[in-house]
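Z., the sequence and structure:
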Amino acid sequence: MSARRRPPVDLARARAAEERLAELLTEKPHLAERTAAMLAGDLPCPDLDDEEEAPPMRRSQTPVNVRLPDTMLARLDALAPLVGTAAELAMVDKVTRSDVLRLAVLKGLEQLEAEYAGHPALPGMGE
């Protein structure tokens, strides 16, 4: 049985991620305290099957099925190695097609919201 080869570590990307984490922890010191407490076993682990106890990120995500043409999937795949430095993906180890699609949706939503700013149908507008 042969050992599986791992790709070489991109030290520049690792250092950049480390710098982004350091900045985040400086801005939000409670994250460092919470992580240290969790690693020490001082925080309860939420029951992931209980929606009330699930982490906020999991509670707020809903799977959406979308059919995309192969040409769009190829474009997503081509972007995956390039968008790893995006701030929105700072905590992602290996950027996937889904990560790129989420980023594209986020940026597209921001652009559309800017185009339709002030419209009463948008959340927080016209109230």
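Confidence is low (pLDDT under 50) at residues 47-51. DSSP finds five helices and no strands in the chain.

Let me know what you think.
H.
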